[in-house]
């Protein structure tokens, strides 16, 4: 599996779920483990966050207090840029001395120089890429729904895992299902998985919309 | 709070109880008081389990008042684990109750000749001690149940489990929470073994008929407390993240940063982290009818704890904290939160320090005694401790002993005490505190307590090469002072960022005692405490060579960032040059 080649070749199955209630919390573990999002190589973290979550600078400053790029703590979100293979982790305020240390522009930066992100001056191709994003802490409740509504990319096996683990909680809340923009008549998840999610390596572009009881709103 | 209970366990035919004044210890509370008594009254070279050692239990200066978050209790002695001075503190109800009864400390000294077990009862009418051998080798939960039957449900208890009775070096002392469960532990350093060596199983406190402690300036105190609470509620850590997810919210971010010690500190990242994170834990608690937001003592406004139910929706344990989830989880390669919660329950019931136990099991895994990831094997090992088998006693004596017995050369301890949940190779500054704290490796010894607000030694320049030494020093000074107030260390997050919240804390102390304390006074208090602790350790035989991390942290690069601990010995030796 090569996420970047697959992303570029657009071999992606588009799945859209409409649900009666908010099912975002069922995806929280997956969002902590990381999912893929498309962007342009070379964009700053700030630009990417504004784009994928549709949020403003004030919200970024107030709520996204801890940001790691490739496992290193980012202080300057305008200098740090997303490239192929990037993985970005975002979190609300973290407790403890450790939490204070890994905060952006922390007074305790000196404690963590070994894991502070430094942007390298290097060239990169201007192209679309998929990068990994992980969401933690209070941001799960604040941003996950927005992200799922906009759309995430993940491997088919991971979506299958969620469907299998949560099938009892999902079976009565999915009101409409689309694959590649075509409505699926049966809402039987097992049959759906057999038909559309059988190859582990397939990429799925998933978006979820809460329609409530108004199906036409989906 | 101007009296000290002294119980001499050596006296025949029954232990002697004396109520004394505070002479020589005026103005001290919490860690300041426990360390002062150990420093003045315990011979540094005594055996920690001998009659010469003393166990001191002290509420903080603001405990028993209306002050929010003031329910911490300090427990001090010469540590059987480190061989140096020890202060371990816990939440729960005993601190508030003891303070309301007017007692600044309980000092248990001497040692009974036989193997009888005693219980102590303290209420407004005085202090009683009596033999109760029916309590022998009971777990903390059953011990508290018996006390409830005998004394009613309005009590609080300070007790030891079988580990303390067996005088194991990793044994803790349990304090009951608001539900009268023995879930809050003074965990570190084997304080339970010292209580066990004194023959005291449980101290029952009943504050019926007592009122809140009255401040000298009631209105000023009330206003300061309101401002303090407002600051805690407004801050995103104390007002949002901690109440929602507890301390275990740290798992994901430490893991991402590559500073989450995994497989006995071999790696800095654990693939199963999201399965045991605070976010996952809280969701599971809510789903099963437990509680994800809960205070460990009355007057707590942060409420970072919770109640963990098993798969059948029955109470299993309190919400395991970050350190516990890490120690028994990632450090041992275990990603099953239910098994980790079971280990937490067993530790609490047997009376064991969860950090020491998790690290010890990691060392046992390194030795090949069981495989990394073997959750059931880990549970069986803890049960061996309860049984008191030779293997159980080895495990119950902590990581250093276990490493020695099984020939492991990678044993993550400082001053014989297991390292907590932050790898010092990724976060060097915490490694400085681990190495130099008089307590042994202790993540709470240098907490984020408003150093720049206090201006301890001036503002820290992060660009200076010795910045992390200076910063660790300032943090340790500030922490020692805060540990004397009875305040939960988690207030640090708010006072760190909000000067007015720190000022409110200082104002509470001043209004309560009629003082004019300044930041400098707080700094001096912290320095005095650390000086006493360092001096005691020096007289007990500690040298600068004890202020070191194990060698492998300098030599083994930690994946994924392949970093080592690079603070030099010479830099570490500058720590206490103030």
Report the sheet-strand fraction of chain A.
15-25%
Strand order of the largest sheet of chain A: 7-10-1-8-9
End-to-end Cα distance of chain A: 32 Å
- State the order of secondary-structure elements of chain A, H for helix, E for strand: HEHEHHEEEHEHEHHEEHE
Q: Approximately how much beta-strand content do the residues of chain B carry?
A: 5-15%
What is the average per-residue confidence, as pLDDT of chain A, rounded to a whole number? Answer: 88
Structural class of chain A: alpha+beta
Regions with little confidence, pLDDT below 50 for 5+ residues of chain A? none
Q: Helix proportion of residues of chain A, in percent?
A: 25-40%
Q: Helix share of residues of chain B?
A: 25-40%
The geometry of chain A reads as globular
The interface involving the most residues is between: A-B, 40 and 59 residues
Number of strands of chain A: 10
Task: Give the radius of gyration of chain A.
Answer: 18 Å
Which stretches of chain B of 5+ consecutive residues score pLDDT under 50?
Answer: 448-465
SSE inventory with pairings:
The complex is a heterodimer of chains A (218) and B (578).
Chain A: H1 3-9, E1 12-19, H2 28-33, E2 35-40, H3 45-53, H4 57-63, E3 66-69, E4 72-73, E5 87-91, H5 96-101, E6 128-135, H6 138-150, E7 152-155, H7 156-165, H8 167-170, E8 174-179, E9 182-183, H9 189-196, E10 203-210
Parallel strand pairs in A: 1-10, 5-6
Antiparallel strand pairs in A: 1-8, 2-6, 3-4, 3-5, 7-10, 8-9
Chain B: E1 3-8, E2 16-20, H1 30-41, E3 55-59, E4 73-78, E5 85-90, H2 94-100, E6 103-109, E7 118-123, E8 126-131, H3 140-151, E9 155-159, H4 162-165, E10 173-175, E11 184-186, H5 191-197, E12 200-206, H6 218-234, H7 236-245, H8 250-256, H9 278-287, E13 291-294, E14 305-309, E15 315-318, H10 322-328, H11 337-350, H12 354-366, H13 375-387, H14 390-396, H15 399-405, E16 413-414, E17 417-418, H16 428-436, H17 451-454, H18 467-482, H19 492-497, H20 499-513, H21 519-539, H22 552-555, H23 569-572
Parallel strand pairs in B: 1-6, 7-12
Antiparallel strand pairs in B: 1-2, 3-4, 3-6, 4-5, 7-8, 9-10, 9-12, 10-11, 13-14, 14-15, 16-17
């Amino acid at each position: 599996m090569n996420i970047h080649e697959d992303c570029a070749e657009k071999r992606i199955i588009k799945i859209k779920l409409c649900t009666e209630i908010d099912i975002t919390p069922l995806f929280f573990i997956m969002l902590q483990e990381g999912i893929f999002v498309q962007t342009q190589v070379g964009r700053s973290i700030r630009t990417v966050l504004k784009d994928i979550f549709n949020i403003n600078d004030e919200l970024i400053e107030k709520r996204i207090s801890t940001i790691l790029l490739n496992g290193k703590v980012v202080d300057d979100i305008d200098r740090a840029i997303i490239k192929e293979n990037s993985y970005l982790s975002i979190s609300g305020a973290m407790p403890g001395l450790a939490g204070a240390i890994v905060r952006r522009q922390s007074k305790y930066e000196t404690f963590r120089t070994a894991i502070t992100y430094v942007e390298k001056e290097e060239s990169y191709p201007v192209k679309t890429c998929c990068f990994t994003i992980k969401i933690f802490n209070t941001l799960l409740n604040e941003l996950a729904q927005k992200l799922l509504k906009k759309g995430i990319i993940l491997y088919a096996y991971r979506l299958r895992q969620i469907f299998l683990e949560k099938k009892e909680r999902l079976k009565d809340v999915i009101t409409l299902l689309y694959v590649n923009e075509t409505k699926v008549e049966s809402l039987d998840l097992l049959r759906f998985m057999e038909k559309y999610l059988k190859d582990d390596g397939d990429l799925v572009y998933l978006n979820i919309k809460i329609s409530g009881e108004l199906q036409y709103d989906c | 709070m101007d009296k000290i209970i002294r119980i001499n366990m050596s006296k025949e035919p029954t232990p002697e109880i004396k109520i004394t004044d505070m002479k020589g210890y005026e103005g001290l509370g919490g860690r300041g008081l426990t360390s002062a008594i150990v420093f003045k009254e315990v011979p540094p070279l005594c055996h920690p389990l001998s009659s010469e050692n003393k166990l001191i239990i002290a509420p903080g200066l603001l405990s028993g008042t209306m002050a929010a978050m003031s329910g911490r209790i300090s427990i001090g002695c010469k540590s059987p684990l480190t061989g140096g001075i020890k202060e371990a503190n816990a939440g729960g109800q005993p601190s508030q109750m003891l303070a309301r009864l007017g007692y600044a400390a309980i000092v248990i000294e001497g040692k009974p000749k036989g193997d009888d077990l005693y219980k102590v009862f303290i209420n407004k009418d005085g202090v009683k001690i009596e033999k109760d051998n029916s309590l022998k080798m009971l777990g903390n939960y059953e011990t508290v149940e018996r006390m409830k039957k005998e004394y009613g449900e309005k009590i609080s208890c300070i007790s030891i489990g079988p580990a303390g009775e067996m005088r194991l070096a990793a044994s803790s002392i349990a304090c009951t929470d608001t539900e009268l469960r023995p879930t809050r532990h003074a965990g570190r350093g084997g304080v339970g073994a010292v209580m066990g060596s004194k023959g005291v199983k449980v101290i029952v406190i009943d504050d019926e008929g007592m009122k809140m402690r009255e401040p000298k300036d009631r209105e000023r105190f009330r206003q300061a407390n309101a401002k303090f609470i407002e600051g805690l509620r407004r801050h995103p850590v104390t007002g949002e993240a901690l109440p929602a997810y507890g301390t275990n919210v740290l798992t994901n971010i430490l893991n991402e940063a590559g500073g989450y010690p995994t497989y006995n500190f071999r790696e800095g990242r654990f693939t199963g982290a999201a399965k045991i994170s605070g976010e996952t834990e809280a969701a599971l608690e809510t789903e099963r009818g437990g509680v994800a937001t809960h205070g460990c003592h009355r007057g707590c406004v942060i409420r970072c704890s919770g109640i963990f139910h098993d798969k059948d929706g029955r109470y299993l344990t309190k919400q395991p904290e970050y350190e516990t989830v890490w120690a028994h989880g990632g450090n041992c390669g275990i990603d099953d939160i239910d098994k980790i919660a079971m280990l937490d329950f067993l530790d609490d019931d047997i009376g064991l320090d969860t950090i020491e136990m998790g690290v010890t099991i990691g060392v046992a895994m390194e030795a090949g005694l069981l495989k990394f990831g073997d959750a059931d094997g880990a549970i069986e090992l803890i049960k061996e401790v309860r049984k008191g088998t030779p293997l159980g006693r080895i495990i119950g004596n902590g990581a250093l002993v276990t490493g020695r017995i099984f020939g492991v050369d990678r044993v993550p301890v400082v001053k014989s005490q297991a390292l907590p949940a932050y790898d010092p190779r990724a976060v060097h500054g915490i490694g400085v505190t681990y190495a130099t704290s008089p307590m042994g490796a202790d993540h709470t010894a240098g907490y984020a307590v408003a150093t720049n607000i206090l201006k301890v030694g001036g503002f820290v320049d992060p660009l200076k090469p010795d910045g992390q030494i200076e910063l660790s020093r300032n943090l340790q000074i500030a922490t020692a002072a805060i540990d004397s107030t009875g305040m939960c260390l988690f207030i640090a997050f708010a006072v760190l960022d909000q000067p007015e919240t720190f000022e409110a804390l200082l104002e509470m102390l001043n209004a309560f005692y009629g003082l004019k304390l300044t930041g400098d006074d707080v700094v001096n208090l912290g320095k005095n405490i650390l000086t006493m602790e360092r001096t005691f350790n020096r007289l007990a035989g500690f040298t600068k060579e004890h202020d070191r991390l194990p060698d492998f942290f300098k030599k083994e690069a930690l994946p994924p960032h392949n970093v080592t601990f690079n603070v030099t010995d010479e830099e570490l030796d500058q720590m206490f040059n103030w």
